[in-house]
Amino acid sequence: PVSSTLYGPRFLKGEVGGSITHPCFYSTTPANKHDRKYWCKMVQSGFCQTVVSTTGYTSKAHVGRVSLKDNPQNGTFAVTLMELKWNDTGTYRCGIGNTNSNMYISLNLTVVADAVDSEPPELILGELHGSVTILCPAGDPQVGEKKFWCKLGRTGCTLIANTNGYVGRNYQGRIFITPQESSGAFKVLINNLKKEDSGLYKCGMGSPSSRDRQQVVALQVTAASTLPRSPKFLSSTIGGSLSFKCHHDPKGNYQKKYLCQWKAAHCSLLVDTEGFVHESYKGRVQIATSSQENGTYRVEMKDLREEDEGWYWCGAKSEHVEHTSSLKLLIQKGRC
Asked: How far apart are CA 14 and CA 107, in angstroms?
């Protein structure tokens, strides 16, 4: 059976005499870290013949032109096949276990006369309940094309969010696609990470089915986490007030902390530690205290209105890193 704890590219193309690298990503459980990793090729009988494995085995036909590197801390192993031949074309499996049929994903390798180099997926590591920031490739900011984030699967790329306002059900309140920067690049921010978020993704401009200006990302969510479970759900009444703590990495050197209001994969800044306060929140919201040592800051809101109900993001930002977390505010309407 194919396991959800393993994922990686399902199609690779290489040119005769060239090389390909197949990255495989797995859950960082103690068993997975220490078990045998393998790469095998399907033969006519339906048997998968080992090409290389972490036991030190290499098939005679591949000696000197295949390598397997395992990185158990990141939950990745990569197989590189060099000096490609026409007969290297075929179906392969990368997997974990003592046999070649327990836990694996399949890959179709095509060897051609000349192939366009394809970039390997960028590995992004995130902690369970934590957050990640993904930098997506630059496009022309003048064109105004929609930006998207989708998850790669067997039959294509399933849309998760775009800047037209679409957000998938499992991502409500926890994904934000930023406006384009002057370079034309943009970021995808995701928080309240779940184990099932691990996988291969694609971000870019236009349509997920096009191949221009797109980035493939491997997101690995690691189980070890000291972060509090989120999102939090808060409740208050019209005219009421509340305060809550926002958490970030105490080791991070953040220049700015902020609160923004989330809606349809966009987050409007309400208040930050540089003195900004949104016009409609003046006198109603403030960042009251901040403790870098504990990795927390406190936000106070008052004179709450019915339209304040919804998702909010706490954020702590440095030049290269942005830590975010989400919470939902419910406003109880008074009885007539």
From this structure: 13
Question: In this structure, are strands 296-301 and 310-317 parallel, antiparallel, or unpaired?
Answer: unpaired
How far apart (Å, rounded) are the C-alpha atoms in residues 148 and 160? Answer: 8
- Please provide the DSSP assignment of 202-236 as one string: EEEES-TTS-TTEEEEEEEEES---SPP--EEEEE
Q: Average pLDDT for consecutive 10-residue bins of the chain (336 residues)?
A: 69 89 90 93 91 96 95 92 94 94 90 71 87 83 79 86 94 92 87 90 84 82 64 88 87 88 94 94 92 86 95 89 90 68
Fold adopted by 232-332:
Immunoglobulin-like (2.60.40)
Cα end-to-end span (Å), the chain:
58
CATH topology of domain 122-222: Immunoglobulin-like (2.60.40)
CATH of domain 6-112: 2.60.40.10
pTM for this entry: 0.76
